[in-house]
């Protein structure tokens, strides 16, 4: 199973090459593109990125493993990021986490999502769902099925 | 409390994020003023305004701008910090979604002053939905020919609190792990691939158009002598109406919390307030009643103003549980370069966990304070010293609660 960037992404990469002093700056953008293409980042994708931007594959791998939003493993389930940091905790995130145990999703406990004023919050597919209650969680997950 | 809307003036307008509405309400007007101002004159105005960085440190913006070379063979860059990962902080997202054109106008003015050809906005990975609003605004401004020679590129992070630290941010933007760099001995610009670069917070840059439009004195007419202007202060936790509300520096903390936030939630009594994001320490209710919201007043209380994101806690909150929650955060987010930080954040998290579970002893409290001392100094960035200060601040103010949990 080998990896290749889609035509649209290859075009984006060419545009981006003109917007940075060095192609090394493209490692995060390329990792994002690879992750959106396949749902996670494969070792093949890391090799292709390495060639595309002329950075050693090991370095790309080190970068990919540093950032919590990059996934090196596949999952069939929906990823649900739930904030467990202070403001959300004060406003009931523990109840939300408990409630999510009853759903067939992959729950990740994450740190502050920048929605402290609308806590508790979860993020699914880059969208924040705020002021959560257990009922609201059910409705949101039902709609996303 | 008098109204002080400098950055949030357009926030409540319908469709305020669109170019049409923004321009109808004066956006980009200040660009014309640049015809009669040299870059150095712009920097002088910013210096006179007393504008201080709003990313947490409060460094005078004008002084940082003046470090950028006016003559240089290398290109100069602006990096706008929208990493916004400090728990309790959610103000920059208001700017990029409610008035992105104000930020873009500020970027254009700043780039003119520091002779930068390209501005990057580093946005935390979790803000992708907000990043898209800003991208549409950049495209709109570009299509309208407003950007001139300046390029604006949005750069998405991928989940790492430490990337908000300015040198870690630049490392990350260079495509590497977000490891803070050793600090130089003398003041100098930051460096992006070896090129002089200015790093400023979103709100700092968004304050620039007002200053150029109305002048340094107008900005100084808000706030205090040493903390001039306004801040997008914010409230979360146990408060009736959490949110972001702009106010001038120097207003009493409780007046702010009561006026905008409607006081403590459900009529409960106040126990404590974290003044400006998780890393700023904690105040007792009595201190919160006394303190004013400016850099100097909070410093005098032994805490800091930080980002102005207050976390309000009611009488039923366990301070041991709160400290445990914060230490989990720091343990998770230490970048791991420095031993005292990498190991220390793990130890203190474990120790407070032990106390929280009722398995602690008084020796654990002493050890916590000892580790805190080791973490305070000799690290590459101020992350570890900040964790140290947080621990000391909780233990000095709420020691009886920690002892009662033993
Ligand atoms: C651990 C750490 C995290 C930080 N996070 C942020 C952040 O998320 N956003 C920000 O603007 N500044 C952050 N800062 C401050 C930056 O290093 C830098 O001082 C700031 O972006 C400069 O802009 P300003 O002077 O306009 O505030 C952080 C600093 C440290 C030590
Ligand atoms: S103090 Fe902590 S976060 Fe800062 S560089 Fe050292 S290990 Fe990294
Ligand atoms: S604490 Fe949960 S979003 Fe900030």
Question: Please, could you describe this protein's structure?
Answer:
The complex is a heterodimer of chains A (145) and B (406). Chain A has 145 residues and is α+β, with helices and mostly antiparallel strands. Chain A folds into two domains: 7-66, Arc Repressor Mutant, subunit A (Orthogonal Bundle), CATH 1.10.10; 78-143, 3-Layer(aba) Sandwich (Glutaredoxin), CATH 3.40.30. In chain A, 47% of the residues lie in helices and 11% in strands. Chain A is built from seven helices and four strands. In chain A, strands 2-1-3-4 form a four-stranded mixed beta sheet, covered by helices on one side. In chain A, helix 3 (43-53) packs across helix 4. Chain A starts with 6 loop residues before the first helix and ends with a helix. Chain B folds into three domains: 19-220, NADH-ubiquinone oxidoreductase 51kDa subunit (Rossmann fold), CATH 3.40.50; 230-314, Roll (Ubiquitin-like (UB roll)); 319-404, Up-down Bundle (de novo design (two linked rop proteins)), CATH 1.20.1440.230. Chain B is 43% helix and 14% strand. Chain B contains 18 helices and ten strands. In chain B, a hairpin with a 5-residue loop joins strand 6 (230-237) and strand 7. The longest helix of chain B is centred in the C-terminal third of the chain and has 18 residues, at 339-356. The radius of gyration of chain B is 21 Å and the shape is globular. Chains A and B meet through helix 2, helix 4 and helix 5 of A and strand 3, strand 6, strand 10 and helix 14 of B. The structure holds flavin mononucleotide, iron/sulfur cluster (SF4) and FE2/S2 (inorganic) cluster. Flavin mononucleotide is lined by residues 53-57, 59, 81, 83-86, 162, 164-166, 199-201, 204, 381-383 of chain B. Iron/sulfur cluster (SF4) binds next to helix 15 and helix 17 of chain B.
